[in-house]
Amino acid sequence: MERLPEFISNHLFLVSLLVSLLMLLIWNIYGGALSGVKQITPAEVTRLINHEKAVVVDVRPAADYQSKHILNALNIPNADMEARKAELDKYKKQPVVFYCGSGAISTRVARTFSTQNFEQVFCLKGGLPSWQNANLPLSKKT
User: Fold this and answer.
1) Alpha-carbon distance 97 to 110, whole Å?
2) Could you report the per-residue pLDDT of 6-57, keeping only the tens digit for each?
3) I need a labelling partner for 38 at 20 to 30 A (CA). Which of 5, 32, 80, 125 fits?
4) CA dist 111 to 5, 37, 49, 96, 131, Å?
5) Looking at residues 83-87, what average pLDDT do you find?
6) What's the CA angle centered on 103, arms 97 and 107, to 5 degrees?
7) pLDDT for residue 34
8) Nearest to 106 by CA among 70, 52, 138
9) Class for domain 36-139, per CATH?
10) For residues 52 and 142, what is the distance between their CA atoms, to the nearest angstrom?
11) Cα dihedral: 133, 128, 104, 38 (round 10)
């Protein structure tokens, strides 16, 4: 242990890299909880849709939505969210689940809505790929 400071000073780049990787790992594991929005699995989304009449909102661009999306999901692209957020006001008392292609953008959007008096705001953990990996049905807009 007495040689640890010497090791750190001799291998500053490697130690910095290790610390950075550890921070990213911690953020990946606990980032959803720190964002203030509950990240839920596809199974939990299905339960919310079937039992609590959850509204599912796809925040991907319209072209992505048309190629494939969760059945009955509303499409309000992130780029249009500010102008169209009034469309979701009628769902303030219902569970609202946001999703995107990866989960990063939808988490940011969900955080915004959770501060605007929406009672139950969720984000699909892992985005649409997690829905597909669970072999759940998708719809296409034609």
Assistant:
1) 8
2) 988 999 999 999 999 999 888 777 765 666 788 999 999 999 999 999 999 9
3) 80
4) 42, 6, 20, 12, 21
5) 90
6) 60
7) 61
8) 70
9) alpha beta
10) 28
11) -80
| C-alpha dihedral sign at 63, 64, 65, 71 | positive
Query: Do 32 and 39 contact (CB within 8 A), yes or no?
Result: yes
List, in order, residues 6 or more apart from 116 with CB less than 8 Å away.
85
3-state secondary structure the chain: CCCHHHHHHHCHHHHHHHHHHHHHHHHHHHHHHHHCCEEECHHHHHHHHHHHCCEEEECCCHHHHHHCEECCCEECCHHHHHHHHHHHHHHCCCEEEEECCCCHHHHHHHHHHHCCCCCEEEEECCHHHHHHHCCCCEECCC
How would you classify the pairing of strands 120-124 and 95-99?
parallel
pLDDT value of position 141 = 67
Range in 29-43, 95-109, 128-142 with the lowest mean pLDDT? 29-43
